[in-house]
Amino acid sequence: MRFSTCVFVLLSVATVTSSTFAFVPLSQQRRSTSFSTTTSSSSPSSSSSSALFLSEEIKEYRKGLSQIHKNLDEVGGAAPKKRTDCVFKFGGSSLANAERINHVAHLIKDQIELGYRPRAVVCSAMGKTTNNLLSAGEFALEGRVCVDAIRTLHVNTMDEFQFDAKDHTRQDVNALLDECEQMLTGVRMIQELSPKSLDQLVSYGERCSVRIMAARLNQIGVPAQAFDAWDVGIQTDSSFGDAKLLPDHESAVQKAFDNRIDPNTVAVVTGFIGHDPNGKITTLGRGGSDLTATALGAALRLDEIQVWKDVDGILSTDPRVVPHAVALDQVSFEEASELAYFGAQVLHPIAMQPAMKYNVPVRVKNSYNPSAVGTIIQQEKSSQDRLVTAITYKKGITVLDISSTQMLGAYGFLSRVFGEFEKHKLSVDVLASSEVSVSLTLDKKQDVSEINALITDLQDCATVTRKDNMSILTLISDVNRSSEVLATVFRVFTQQQIKVEMMSQGASKVNISFIVRSDNLEHAITELHSCFFDNKCSVEPMEVTNKVLLEEEKEAVAATAATDGNTTSEEVEAVAP
């Protein structure tokens, strides 16, 4: 068997909001499972424990793996045809408890047996540990130190795996939890929790998680070693809470893997955290665990980065709006970035940058359905001939219409307008302008008081009209066919009496955005998805209509010829499409 090397990424499945939709969560009914540290024993308790591994869930999972082997030539992406180095990434919900960690550990083992060779497995904190740590910080500021829930989760997980009291994993995790409690005691005493201290506080979740995962992999026969991210070269600046990778992190990663990590050992690495030049712990901000995975995959020039979620891949739209939304086989980095920016739960655009730099494909896979191909994100667009790739949206948008005759033929007016936005630290999603006006949108996450102050300042030089309860509906599409897309969209909107408040085509040339009232949003998405993906347009697309008109014209010319006898057959054929 030929082996593949890869990086596995375990992603958290965040709480789904009204503006996120790229993935369909699977409803699962899971049984509680006991775990044994060995695979064979003559004791009744050990036999009982082993039997529990053969639960219906595991049986079904094994059936799925058997199907993979049977269909390797039929299902692309199910297993590599050559050795493929990769990174795997798993998030908090994938590691929520002992049962989930056990499931992931066996998934990794099975993927290795299929021919993959993970150079690294990037893990988030277990379940809701990060949120619990943040809450513990708030409690400490109020005078209470409590890590009971966090300690209970990790200790119970180690108990399920029957880690011995003298096992170094149990000792390491307990030491980290004790250190966390001591830190919170200090916070209570000095009544201060700085961004630097907060980064250290939340780091305990990932640091405990990787040690438990590595130990479980070793138990089931997969050589593994836990690493804090800074020990494998993840170096950042000192922007606590939203640190950026240093330019020389690539060479540091390469050096670490060359000198410290056995190529036959899986490095289980903390996501989300790093070290600044002074050795202080930092966090990478939104999408940080994804960024850790793509940074490792890119620095090591691996063949693939696999992001394992609880869903089959990226979908054509929000399945809560369109239940039969279809899975996409492939999207480009540019398309995925636009999808993420406009609300879809894909990789964060910043996390895709390392993979884009070296064109390392990122595959979104389902840990509950490993035989599914998933969605591949890479430089090239899909070879499928599709007018629209996906439909995404953002709700709760505010639109500002700024108009002034001072704009006409004047220099510096827009500079003055956007100077006010910079002053109030407000960012713009969508923008459209004319000779005397500019319209733009503000996300609902922006500071309301700053928006009000901005409007007051702008009214000194312009008339400002504010519209709330709006939504951005974005089509990820082929710019070369934008005329067809726009013609179809406006025909649908006209027939369905959906008013467009504003329209903009992004500079990326892969998105077209429409601003509509929020109460029209879901209806608009349903109608457009039916048109572009189900071939059930309530109005015929432009090319179909043109064909019908040409046929009608041809019939009219032929009828005229039959009547007066003066029209030639060449004139009739001249109107053919």
- Please state the average pLDDT score: 82
Overall shape: globular
Q: Sketch the major β-sheet.
A: 9 strands, mixed
**What structural class do you assign from the helix and strand content?**
alpha/beta
The CATH superfamily name of the largest domain is: Acetylglutamate kinase-like
CATH structural architecture of the largest domain? 3-Layer(aba) Sandwich
Number of helices: 17
Protein name: Aspartate/glutamate/uridylate kinase
GO biological process, one term: lysine biosynthetic process via diaminopimelate
InterPro entries: ACT_Aspartokinase, Asp/Glu/Uridylate_kinase, Asp_kinase, Aspartate_kinase_CS
Pfam families: AA_kinase, ACT_9
Describe the protein's architecture and organization.
The protein is α/β, with parallel strands linked by helices and 577 residues long. The protein has three domains: 6-378, Carbamate kinase, CATH 3.40.1160; 388-539, 2-Layer Sandwich (VC0802-like); 543-573. Helix content is 41%, strand content 18%. The protein is built from 17 helices and 17 strands. It has helices at residues 44-52, 56-70, 98-113, 129-141, 148-160, 168-190, 195-219, 249-259, 288-299, 333-341, 349-358, 413-423, 448-458, 482-496, 518-533, 542-564, 569-573, and strands at residues 6-11, 84-90, 116-123, 224-227, 266-270, 273-275, 281-283, 304-309, 330-332, 362-366, 375-378, 388-403, 431-433, 437-442, 463-477, 502-505, 511-517. Strands 1, 2, 3, 4, 5, 8, 9, 10 and 11 form a nine-stranded mixed sheet that branches. The chain has a six-stranded antiparallel sheet with strand order 13-14-12-15-17-16. Strand 2, helix 3 and strand 3 form a beta-alpha-beta unit. Helix 4 runs antiparallel to helix 7 (195-219). The longest helix is centred in the middle third of the chain and has 25 residues, at 195-219. It is globular. The two termini are 55 Å apart.
